[in-house]
Amino acid sequence: MSHATVNGATLHHDDLGPSTGLPVLLIHGHPFNRTLWTPQSAALTAAGHRVITPDLRGYGASDVTPGQVYLSDFADDLVGLLDLLGIDRAVVGGVSMGGQIAMEVQRRHASRVRALVLSDTSAPAETPEGRAFRNQLADRLLAEGMGGYADEVIGKMLASYNVTALPEVAAHVLGMMRATDPRGAAAALRGRAERADYRDTLAAASCPVLVVVGADDAYTPVADAETITRLAPHAALHVIEGAGHLPGAEQPDRFNRVLLDFLRDRVTG
Questions:
Q1: How many Cβ atoms are within 10 Å of 19's Cβ, its own excluded?
Q2: Which residues pair with 3 in a beta bridge?
Q3: Rounded to an integer, what distance in angstroms lies between the CA atom of residue 189 and that of residue 170?
Q4: pTM of the entire structure?
């Protein structure tokens, strides 16, 4: 693990694989950390790619900024990290909130994006009901901590049947959620509640876009992924059977095969 100071915060990250490989930046969702991408890092580096997996500000080992952290703040942090690593353009991928951050990178820094990988995410701005929910959840996490929330949502983060079928995966996901600093989680929730509408950004994207979704995603269902695919001119959709909101963790072999094929056929081919 390495660390770098970007925009006043120390971000911990892994930078794996050959420095000459295709750079792939993978962004975790809420409330996780960079270890969510461990199966993808192994497969990508084995294929000769360079993989950067950061802990976002407020998550994992990175510094916490209390209050409110916007998706634009995360996007600028990540581009600043690419600058420090000497990477001009990268494949930028993310899951859930990480997918929205990837779209924010495209919106603010399109010249830095070689391709997008959008897993289990959604493009529209938050609804009024969604804004209220995220702010209320932020209040709750600050008051109660992460434990009760983690126990409540594990059956939605993973497909419900995978909580028992994949006990090691469930334990890892629960561990990440419970270990997250409530101040970081709350700040991200408040910022995410004010996120931009990314539909115009997707419609204007000239880069290749891989859209992936778990077949049984309870948070951002297949219909959301289909909407993203229709919006982006150069998008391809893959539905991962046997998975919920985190197909890269639930079905890593299937997810990795789709990702590696996309990089080979649409990015480097």
A1: 10
A2: 12
A3: 23
A4: 0.98
Tell which residue, 265, 254, 269, has the closest CA to residue 43: 254
Query: In this structure, what DSSP letter does residue 159 have?
Result: -
152 — pLDDT class (breaks 50, 70, 90): very high
* Domains of the chain and CATH, by start: 2-268 (3.40.50.1820)
> Is residue 213 very low, low, confident or very high in pLDDT (cuts 50, 70, 90)?
very high
Structure tokens at 44: 């990508």
Give the rounded distance of the alpha carbon of 76 from its chain centre. Answer: 15
pLDDT (tens digit, 9 = 90+) per residue, 21-80?
999 999 999 999 999 999 999 999 999 999 999 999 999 999 999 999 999 999 999 999
CB atoms within 10 A of CB 133: 14
Mean pLDDT of the chain: 98
CA–CA separation, 101 vs 58, rounded Å?
14
Helix, strand, coil content of the chain in percent (nearest 5): 50, 20, 30
Query: Could you tell me how far CA 212 lies from the centroid of its own chain?
Result: 12
Helix, strand, or coil (residue 93): strand
Number of H helices and E strands in the chain, helices first, is 12, 8
Cβ neighbours of 127 (radius 10 Å): 10
Please measure the distance between the N-terminal and C-terminal CA atoms of the chain and give it in whole angstroms: 31
